[in-house]
Design goal:
This protein is α+β, with helices and mostly antiparallel strands and 301 residues long. Helix content is 31%, strand content 30%. The chain has two domains: 138 residues, OB fold (Dihydrolipoamide Acetyltransferase, E2P) (Beta Barrel); 80 residues, Beta Barrel (OB fold (Dihydrolipoamide Acetyltransferase, E2P)), CATH 2.40.50. The strands form two sheets. The chain has a seven-stranded antiparallel sheet with strand order 9-8-7-10-11-12-13. It is elongated.
């Protein structure tokens, strides 16, 4: 009865399953590795967002606040070039939270009129401590490239970059945590599927990236495409990452039973089953790959 069922299901696999997309949001890595990769990247993205948000809010408040006035003495200056603005080196009077000496880019008119040993007053933002203006002889001069609001464009860019980076590492860590719990405490929830191998793919040691956000890098990558033999009209091709050992032993048209993680699609177990059901070979990927040959007819006796 089992042999007849396998033959019928094997015949149901279409000869042409259409184009196969190897793009995958599910990288097929171990749940533990997904946690180790996703958690640090998630924390880093959150820190970027937090830094961008803090500097943006502080800059908005500084733009409407009175400046901090810090007196100092000009101790040297440098003339500008075609690619850089003139600079003044100013020694500040002792003020908590400020360095003793600063070098500031200034407009050319300031560099020409402010002599060495002149007393000047620097205007700093209240919270971010950006020097955005210089006062000499009662005349304030705005410093190029800065403002009382700091660098709002940079703050917004940092915030947006963190927002872009956050979703996938967080999802990767979430998938890794859930699959790790299933692997340790509820292995009955692992996904199982009988399918036919309809395609294989391998990349050599090149810089070509793997489709998806978890790239293959420069290491070889091996994949197989499986078409389920059960499920009726809702069936579609599933792609999995496998070891080089498995890749070297499979070919198109092979019928397999696969056990994999429901979220990351990490393959735990792969059984090669002939359409006649006479012999199968089991490859267990966790613990490390072991190949065992069993004779079903001998077991039935």
């Amino acid at each position: 009865m089992l042999d007849n069922t396998i033959r019928r299901e094997f015949r149901d696999v279409p000869a042409d399953v259409g184009p196969i997309s190897w793009w995958s949001w599910r990288p097929g890595i171990k749940p533990r590795n997904a946690l180790l990769l996703g958690c640090p990247l998630t924390i880093f993205a959150l820190l970027m967002m937090l830094l961008g948000l803090i500097t943006l809010v502080a800059g908005i408040e500084d733009s409407s606040s009175a400046p901090l006035l810090v007196p100092g003495t000009v101790i040297s200056r440098s003339t500008g070039t075609t690619t850089s603005a003139p600079q003044l080196t100013i020694q500040l009077r002792r003020t908590a939270g400020f360095p003793s000496t600063v070098a500031l880019a200034v407009p050319a008119i300031v560099a020409q009129h402010v002599p060495i040993n002149a007393t000047v007053t620097l205007m700093y933002s209240q919270r971010l401590h950006f020097a955005y203006a210089l006062e000499y002889a009662g005349h304030p001069y705005t410093l190029p490239g800065v403002s009382a609001a700091g660098n709002p464009v940079g703050s917004i860019a940092l915030l947006l970059l963190g927002l872009i980076m956050l979703p996938y590492p967080a999802l990767l860590a979430h998938w890794g945590w859930r699959d790790l719990l299933i692997e340790r405490y509820d292995r009955g929830r692992l996904c199982k599927m009988m399918a036919c191998i309809v395609d294989t793919r391998a990349t050599t040691r090149t810089l070509v990236a793997r489709p998806g956000l978890a790239g293959r890098g420069t290491r070889p990558w091996y994949g197989i495409a499986l078409f389920p033999v059960e499920g009726g009209s809702s069936r579609h091709v599933h792609t999995f990452s496998v070891s080089g050992e498995i890749y070297g032993s499979v070919q198109k048209g092979t019928l397999v039973n696969v056990t994999y993680a429901p979220h990351l699609h990490y393959v735990y177990r792969l059984e090669f089953q002939s359409p006649q059901g006479r012999r199968k070979r089991t490859v267990a990927l966790t613990p490390p790959a072991e190949v065992q040959y069993t004779d079903q007819n001998r077991k039935s006796q």
